[in-house]
Amino acid sequence: MKTLRMMATALWNTAVGMSVTIKHMLFRPRITLQYPDERHNMPAGTRGIPVLLSDDNGVLKCIVCELCEKICPVHIIEIRWHRDDQTRKKVLDEFNLDASRCMLCGLCAEVCPAEAIAMSDHYELAEYDLSSLVYDKEKLQQLGRPQKTPIINYGVKTEG
């Protein structure tokens, strides 16, 4: 009698488990992405790699205040500039960011008074060579140029 009860319980538990499986398989939307063929659509405000933003004319918004360089806890931002002889304004020469050591903390975007740097939705940073993870000004501007959304939680949505 005990064996029959155990068999009935095992059959019942199997039926319950299979009903859950069949319900998820046939009647619920699929949530697993077939990576890398399918990519996750990251929401605005995602903290991917920091990018440099441009205005509508394609000019960088950076005013070379160097606050992002100073506040970065791992010192991965390197800025070089010179002063224009006529306007006496700072001109950005180099803006290098070592993405291999970036913590994606967002402090650089948070401190920027000109909203020139923002966290992007670029999250795939795998490379074979570490030196290719050092992004220069042009690469960071290119990554941030197709800005789709305004800055939300220090992040923007791009073509990434």
Summarize the helices and strands and which ones pair or pack:
Layout: H1 2-27, E1 50-52, H2 67-71, E2 77-83, E3 90-98, H3 107-111, E4 117-119, E5 134-135, H4 137-144
Antiparallel strand pairs: 1-4, 2-3, 3-5
Short description:
With 160 residues, the protein is α+β, with helices and mostly antiparallel strands. Helix content is 28%, strand content 15%. The strands form 2 sheets. A 3-stranded antiparallel β-sheet has the order 2-3-5. It has a two-stranded antiparallel ribbon with strand order 1-4.
Describe this structure in words.
Helices cover 28% and strands 15% of the residues. The chain has helices at residues 2-27, 67-71, 107-111, 137-144; strands at 50-52, 77-83, 90-98, 117-119, 134-135. The longest helix is centred in the N-terminal third of the chain and has 26 residues, at 2-27. The protein is elongated and about 100 Å long. The model has no long low-confidence stretch (mean pLDDT 92).
